[in-house]
Amino acid sequence: MTAEPFRVAVLGGGITGLSAAFYLHRFAERLGRPIRVTLLESSDRLGGRIDTLRREGYVIERGPDSFLARKTAMIDLARDLGLDKELAYTSPLARTTYIVHRGRLHPMPDGLMMGVPSDLGALARTGVISPVGKLRAACDLFLPRRGKDGDEAVGEFLRRRLGREVAERIAEPLLAGIHAGDPDRLSLRATLPQFADLERKYGSLIRGMAAVRGRSAPANLPPEARGRTFLSFRRGLYSVVEALERRLLRDGCAIRFGAAAVSLERNAPDGAPYRIVAENGMEVAADAVIVAVPAPAAARLLEPHVDVEALRRVEYVSVANVALGYDARRFGHKLDGSGFLVPRGEGRVITASTWTSTKWPHTAPAGKRLLRCYVGRAGDETAVHLPDDSLAYAVKRDLRDLMDLTARPELVVISRHRNAMPQYAVGHLERIAELRRQLENRLPGVMVTGSALEGVGLPDCAAQGRKSAAALLGLPAGAR
Ligand SMILES: Cc1cc2nc3c(=O)[nH]c(=O)nc-3n(C[C@H](O)[C@H](O)[C@H](O)COP(=O)(O)OP(=O)(O)OC[C@H]3O[C@@H](n4cnc5c(N)ncnc54)[C@H](O)[C@@H]3O)c2cc1C
Q: Which of 49, 50, 230 to mutate to test the pocket of ligand 1 (most atoms within 8 A of CB)?
């Protein structure tokens, strides 16, 4: 007699849910344990925020455009899917990132890591910080560690260590590019735990950065990826979603589209511990559930059973981006870098711009140039909701002012992401730990995971999906 399959419902078909479903099959096969995975996705497509548009030879990312090499979960996933040959690497021509200061682009000096100088020379070279601001940042070398334990806001931390100028003119725009967040509300421990660790260990951010700068790359990084900060895929990030979908179908995963999970109940009629009900009336009986949906949807599912304060406190920021394609002959700018960042105080609509065709040569056909401009950050989301014409006009006006770019784009693609970027407020990790404690006691076998919980980056999400799958099947967190 064959054993009854272990029935798992995965809620949400973004990268977290897809990674969870993929590793559930992989681990179960390895353990010789029959499994039946049902993935419920509310929309009519997989991938969540990942959305690549392939048009007229361009590869345009409407959502995320790349992932950190240093956190290797996406590289591992690519390998496990046989997709590692498809990895794309940033061009060496894109070394310089510019930063806007008083309406002009300034190259960011080498030696700044996440906006933090790893040597005093890097600090001395920047034209963005005044002499007094540089002296203040150098005080980081002598200032004592923070006296209190516990979390603090990222902005408070950066001002405390490096002073207001470095915090506001360099670190904040870099962070805004990742979280679209307000540094005075973001949790240091949830958003930049490595910074908190550096202070604890080295007593100084600058000394800490210098110490980790030369540290060798993770051992499992492909040789081509060494020295590159970000990676993508030659045909765009959606390649990983397509590969996951193919693999899940092959493995017998039941993928249900248009199935927004609206309730999670205990004790299904057939004796299964859980029953998921979707808005379209579909019901799924499950032994275990992985909840990988945005925080408001997860809160709604779990609220009847546990205190969901941790999820309710995650606020979302809306962002947009405008991709512009040009004929190179009429372009008139050398695009000699990866793009530019715009500090909040500069009063621009654009928060950052990637010079996509320089940074990622695979994204534009020969003879074309591609830029991507980002709009919207915490406390400043109005531009995201402008009508298309006005948004495109405002972006082009900023490009004219900042880059002297007057060429007419031959392609404009506007992508809006409403309530897309989760913000981890101070105390986030403690609240999440409490939520998980309650889940373990009251809903054993129900896991909540994804970008609202433990990291917004694609590698964080892929890692969370994998970790949830491992935990459900009793494997160690690092299983692969
Ligand atoms: C514009 C933008 C740019 C970004 N750029 C980068 C980048 O360059 N690099 C990087 O590493 N990260 C980037 N990020 C972050 C990263 O893309 C996300 O954090 C990540 O994709 C989130 O994955 P997820 O699976 O946790 O959530 P999501 O992608 O949000 O997926 C959740 C899924 O659940 C579905 N769903 C919702 N409610 C229900 C329900 N009730 N039942 C069933 N399904 C439901 C949704 O339709 C969706 O498919 C970016 C994010 C945005 C928005």
A: 49
Question: What local confidence, expressed as pLDDT, does residue 124 receive?
Answer: 85
pLDDT tens for each residue of 371-396: 999 999 888 899 999 999 999 999 99
Portions of the chain given CATH number 3.50.50.60: 6-48+239-314+425-472
Topology annotation, domain 52-93+316-423:
Polyamine Oxidase; Chain A, domain 2 (3.90.660)
CA of 74, closest atom in ligand 1:
11
Q: Would you say residue 166 has pLDDT above 70?
A: yes
Q: Side by side, which strands form the sheet with 411-423?
A: 104-107, 97-101, 339-341, 350-354, 368-375, 315-327, 411-423
Separation between Cα atoms, residue 452 and residue 448, nearest integer Å:
9
- Of all protein residues, the one whose alpha carbon is nearest to atom 4 of ligand 1 is 64
Q: Which CATH superfamily groups domain 6-48+239-314+425-472?
A: FAD/NAD(P)-binding domain (3.50.50.60)
Characterize the bridge pairing of strands 288-291 and 315-327. unpaired
pTM for the full predicted model? 0.95
Note whether 310 and 428 are within 8 A (CB).
yes
